[in-house]
Amino acid sequence: xxxxxxxxxxxxxxxxxxxxxxxxxxxxxxxxxxxxxxxxxxxxxxxxxxxxxxxxxxxxxxxxxxxxxxxxxxxxxxxxxxxxxxxxxxxxxxxxxxxxxxxxxxxxxxxxxxxxxxxxxxxxxxxxxxxxxxxxxxxxxxxxxxxxxxxxxxxxxxxxxxxxxxxxxxxxxxxxxxxxxxxxxxxxxxxxxxxxxxxxxxxxxxxxxxxxxxxxxxxxxxxxxxxxxxxxxxxxxxxxxxxxxxxxxxxxxx
Length: 254
Prior knowledge:
By secondary structure, the protein is of the alpha+beta class. The chain has two domains: 5-150, Jelly Rolls; 155-253, Homeodomain-like (Arc Repressor Mutant, subunit A), CATH 1.10.10. The protein contains ten helices and ten strands. The protein has helices at residues 92-96, 118-129, 133-145, 155-166, 173-179, 184-195, 199-214, 221-227, 233-244, 248-253, and strands spanning 5-7, 17-25, 29-33, 40-46, 49-52, 57-59, 63-66, 73-77, 81-88, 108-110. It has a six-stranded antiparallel β-sheet with strand order 1-2-9-4-7-10, covered by helices on one side. Strands 3-8-5-6 form a four-stranded antiparallel β-sheet, with no helix packed on it. Helix 2 packs antiparallel against helix 3 and helix 4 (155-166) packs across helix 7 (199-214). The longest helix has 16 residues, at 199-214.
């Protein structure tokens, strides 16, 4: 299965959106996705997509936001499936959607659940008639550019995510709030609303993603345990399996 094609957003959107990826899958397939560092939006342009939970599957709308999470997710697609994923900067999604992002932690929600405007229907119609990916990317750019006038960046929280990533997730929230001259409770409230999870949970996601993406055949699981903030290898293995759906050894083999 070929990898996704990557596109950059319009320059005016670059401070808020990291990239777009176009994913096309010819056959029915189950994709295992580990937690990302931001909310992700999907614009489906062909086929159907299901989010597979522990005991049931949820059909996802063509315009859908997937919130932050602490464990892997399974997505099932129909044959001939196509989707463009929008990877936001950590606080980027909060600028375009007036909804507390932590309200759909570990879940995927249709934009129609909190946005009733005609713009969604018009955008979906345009996507259906687009002839190529360049046209689809242009449609998505315009979707966000129309909302850009209302965008208000929470620079303090954006800085907080940068600090967390620069420390690879190994920073105490008390230390972080002190550096920002903000009470811990106030920081946590703002962070959860615009990022989609608590700063403590974000630190955990940063650490585990770093370990997962950095594992090699020469890696020692003892060091990986320490890097992820675990001092017990059994606890690390349990957390890693919850995060990726596999043990560290199986993850390396895959």
